[in-house]
């Protein structure tokens, strides 16, 4: 098992190598880079890629996946200093999350219908005989 510092450094090297040499992987699966940047402790880059992954999943109608990616970005953003840029990024993540949740749950879900037992009319027995 690798020591934590070595593992973080390895994740950072992987993320930067993917970013520099494998742009097609980055564009197709930004969540891979988000994962590596997260594990490397590079929060700013990780949040950016989680946001991109969430948007990309939502565009492909993968709303459950988008929700997961966006929530991971939001959890990480708490680790960033409270700068105006971080607040702006958090707002963007929240807006995108709200949109994904609305799509996943349905904008106007039908009300749940419960089966009710209706009392039988007093003359129900007589009606059945007819």
In short:
The chain has 130 residues and is mostly helical.
Quick tags:
7 helices; 0% strand; 130 residues
Protein described:
- With 130 residues, the chain is mostly helical.
- It has one domain (4-107).
- 73% of the residues lie in helices and 0% in strands.
- The protein is built from seven helices and no strands.
- The protein has helices at residues 4-21, 23-28, 30-40, 43-59, 63-77, 84-105, 124-129.
- Helix 1 (4-21) packs antiparallel against helix 3 (30-40) and helix 4 (43-59) packs antiparallel against helix 5 (63-77).
- The radius of gyration is 25 Å and the shape is globular.
- The model has no long low-confidence stretch (mean pLDDT 85).
Q: Which range does the strand content fall in? A: under 5%
Described by the principal axes of the CA atoms, the overall outline is: globular
What is the number of beta strands?
0
> How many distinct folded domains?
1
The secondary-structure class comes to: mainly alpha
Radius of gyration: 25 Å
Write the element-wise H/E pattern from the N-terminal end onward.
HHHHHHH
How far apart are the first and last residues' alpha carbons, in Å? 82 Å
Sketch the major β-sheet: none
Mean pLDDT: 85
What percentage of residues falls in helices of 4 or more residues? over 70%
Unreliable segments of 5+ consecutive residues: none
Number of helical elements: 7
């Amino acid at each position: 098992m690798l020591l934590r510092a070595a593992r973080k450094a390895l994740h950072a090297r992987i993320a930067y190598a993917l970013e520099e040499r494998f742009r097609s992987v980055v564009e197709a699966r930004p969540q891979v880079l988000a994962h590596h940047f997260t594990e490397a402790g590079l929060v700013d880059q990780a949040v950016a890629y989680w946001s991109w992954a969430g948007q990309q999943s939502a565009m492909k109608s993968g709303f459950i996946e988008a929700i997961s990616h966006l929530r991971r970005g939001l959890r990480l953003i708490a680790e960033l200093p409270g700068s105006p840029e971080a607040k702006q990024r958090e707002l963007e993540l929240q807006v995108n999350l709200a949109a994904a949740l609305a799509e996943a749950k349905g904008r106007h879900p039908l009300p749940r219908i419960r089966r009710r037992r209706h009392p039988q009319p007093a003359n129900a027995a007589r009606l059945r005989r007819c």
